[in-house]
Amino acid sequence: MIDLGLTKLAIIGAVALVVIGPEKLPKVARMAGTLYGRAQRYLHDVKSEVSREIEMEELRNLHKDIQDSAQSFKSEVETFKSEVENTVSTHMDEVESAWRGDTAVMPTTASTDDIERKARDFRRKKLAKTSSMPAWYKNRQGTRQHVLSGAARVRKFRPGATSNTKFF
Fold this sequence. Notes:
Blueprint: H1 6-20, H2 25-100, H3 112-131, H4 135-141, H5 150-157
Family: Belongs to the TatB family.
Pfam families: TatA_B_E (PF02416)
InterPro entries: TatA/B/E (IPR003369), TatB (IPR018448)
């Protein structure tokens, strides 16, 4: 607040002693101290009230943001719900019409995601099937034991190339 050093306080005290006098100086000093304390408490109360108001405003803004988010989420859920209901009713109508024999059922084409999923499942099943076989059975059936890379396969089947590597 006020930058008062020791020298400034000594000068103020000397002037007050001369102006007020030695008998009234303790009363005036006491009153000045109480007024200074009241001013400090008042400033502290004002600061805390302002900080409380700022926090309340932040909470109100946060509450408003949360309500807006909840409202947008609710509208998205309602939109999704109506889309699902429309899709289900469309499919139910198709099934009922196919059951009654009104129209011929058109085979649906599989999407790329379904094809990729089926390919992954096939590879997994094949891997599980071939990896669970014992090695002697694989040897008898001619199943590959080691997979060669493309470059190794080209080198192996290139005319005039030897398959053994010589180090020296």
